[in-house]
Amino acid sequence: MLCNGDEDYFVTVSGWERPAGISSGHRPQFEVHVEMPLDAAVVAAAEDVLEGVAEGARAFWGRATPNGAALDIARQTAPTIEGPPSPPRGLPSLKLFEDIRVPEIPCHLGWLNYWSAATARTIGFPDPVHDAELLSRSRRTVTGGWVVRLTDAPLDLDKPEHLDVLLRAYERFPEIGGRSAP
């Protein structure tokens, strides 16, 4: 869709339709992907970029994650070509997009998470009793959605404290990845 053409600071925005047969809730969806270098300026603007893209596209949910952590998170989805899932680092197995009952349920978590108002209601966020830590790094959007930052610095699963935050978030929201019954 967009490319800045600067090979020293490459930024692209791309998107494609996800047909109903392979989408959550069996409804056609549109995926938007943004690739940017992970420098101080991008880290500082990441929440605003995620919110702007997600709200502009009227997304149910979205995430921003550095490539290293994103690869481990992608390995959570089952089944794999090699067979049954074996997610790294003790992460939970997640269902394929098409096996998640409604599109409001995020397929996975990331460093920064955008949850529309509908998604937040569906997964039960926020709960002041259970979400104090997440709320300290979250903000409400103008449309009633949320931008939720799991860690202050970009997610690095080689850091035990980052992995622990991600595991706790999956434990808190069993709906994410289609892991709970309706």
Kindly list the characteristics that best describe this protein.
single chain, 182 residues, alpha+beta, four-stranded antiparallel sheet, three-stranded antiparallel sheet, globular
Question: Describe it for me?
Answer:
- The chain is about 25% helix and about 15% strand.
- By secondary structure, the protein is of the alpha+beta class.
- The strands form two sheets. The chain has a four-stranded antiparallel beta sheet.
- The mean pLDDT is about 90.
Task: Give a short summary of the structure.
The protein has five helices and seven strands. By secondary structure, it is of the alpha+beta class.
Oligomer status: single chain
Molecular shape: globular
Which H/E pattern describes the elements?
Answer: EEEHEHEHHEEH
Share of helix, binned: 25-40%
- Poorly predicted runs are none
How far do the termini sit from each other?
36 Å
Count of DSSP helices? 5
Mean pLDDT: 91
